[in-house]
Write a structure and sequence with these properties.
The chain has 365 residues and is α/β, with parallel strands linked by helices. It folds into two domains: 227 residues, Aspartate Aminotransferase, domain 2 (3-Layer(aba) Sandwich), CATH 3.40.640.10; 121 residues, Alpha-Beta Complex (Aspartate Aminotransferase, domain 1). Helices cover 40% and strands 15% of the residues. The chain has a seven-stranded mixed sheet with strand order 1-9-8-5-4-2-3, with helices on both faces. It has a three-stranded antiparallel sheet with strand order 7-6-12, with no helix packed on it. A two-stranded antiparallel sheet has the order 10-11. The mean pLDDT is 97.
Amino acid sequence: MIKFLDLYQQYQGIRQEMDAAIARVIQQSSFIGGEDAAAFEKEFGTFQQATHCVGVANGTDAIEIVLEALELAHGSEVIVPANSFIASSEAVTRSGHRVIFADVLQDTYTLDPADVVRRITPKTRAIVAVHLYGQPCRMDELTAICRTHNLKLIEDAAQAHGAEYKGHRVGTLGVAGTFSFYPGKNLGAYGDAGAITTNDIDLALKCRMIANHGRTGKYDHRFEGRNSRLDGLQAAVLRVKLRHLDNWIERRNRIAAIYGDGLAGLRGLALPMIEAGTRHAFHLYVVRTEKREQLAKFLAECEIQTGVHYPIALPKLQAYTYLGQDKEPMFANRADSTLLSLPMGDHLSDADARAVIQAVRRFFE
């Protein structure tokens, strides 16, 4: 069986480090906050080239906290890509704002800057740029749009830890970056966890206070906040994994390169493209074919696991039909039935990747 993801195999490779880190937290009984949480914030901020990092409970909270800290007028419109996980959009509506979906580019599945411009109205206040599947968005164009229209640019980097745009880590190019450490991410905890990165000291302080009951000291509550803290065990797990992340990303890029070479030229199969000047994190390797269901079934019979990210475009979800964007002729609304994620991760060998290629080629040929 070629697994889509194998976290146990990953654990086996770092078992000694991981067991020691977890034992240390238990011994210290440092379960909320503590040394590991503070150290991880510093280490991940340095890794992401950000001046400030705030650990939170999960990636969805990270987006909501940033939106709250920006103090947008209630009911503001926030532009979000039509192809993403619902966390990117539900954070907007749960923060009291109106989500507006924009289309994505056909080659990279990231926000289409031209369509973003078409969606801007006098009520638009922010854009959530999702670095989907690990591919950085076209940040120069989005930054220029935000500058022209006086908008806030938030980076949803939940799938893009370590990805780079023109030599800069994503998560530092907008007002703030938000990260999820869901177990299956490139940098995954052993439970839920998240973080916010920013180079704005005031925004960082406001986010930290919101995430910790609106306080600066134990009982010094400046306003009502929420409980969204990175716990010590997850921080310890993430500190161990962070030391290996760059190597794991390089491994993912190696597998992606093998896929790209081996699957090139297959009629009826569209491969992901890497934007010039970027480092793709390859959280997922997503292909596109009108024969998605048949290909997935064939690969399963070959003992190759696959996934679908995401089977229903956000505007077509029942949660958003009130917006009326489900009938729009967006690429995202058409492509959702054609996307298929092939196995991707540091657990794969070159031989595994070639076995996937052989199976895919047999299907098409």
